[in-house]
Specification:
This protein has helices at about 10-30, 40-45, 70-75, 100-110, 125-135; strands at about 1-5, 50-55, 60-65, 80-90, 115-125, 140-145, 160-165. By secondary structure, the protein is of the alpha+beta class. The radius of gyration is 15 Å and the shape is globular.
Amino acid sequence: MKIQNSTRNDIEEIFRLYKIATDFQKTKFIVHWPEFERSLVETEIAENRQWKIVINGQIACVWAITFSDPQIWEERNNDPAIYIHRIATNPDFRGQNLVQKIVEWSKQYALANHKKFIRLDTVGDNPGLISYYTKCGFDFLGLSKLKNTEGLPAHYDNATVSLFQLGV
């Protein structure tokens, strides 16, 4: 297993995994991911903020990070943190605790970049995801109604989000 930055050559696979994740979300939840802009992923790749887990030469999982997320985290955005977004797992690798591997990687990445927190959010009040992320070590900080979603992906429009944080 290797964790490394995604490259432009991975874009089609990233979008395939997003589609699989979105199709799954549609069967379970009212809110699901929109179709993301290709330019969003291209920018993340260019800025080394799009990541992947590779197992036996295959992309097993992808996610993106940022060091700032003010529209979701508001005043807490001033804290030194990394923010994880859009974890999508290849169905061939489900059940291998890949989110836990992302958490362990994130701890080291956060420390190397002088950050004190790892944060993520999910749209809505989803007891299953709340339980899952707390099992992965995150503290559930509660629900937050977003005030300004201009420029955010469409699933954040008029949304309430569940906030999660892990100290490093």
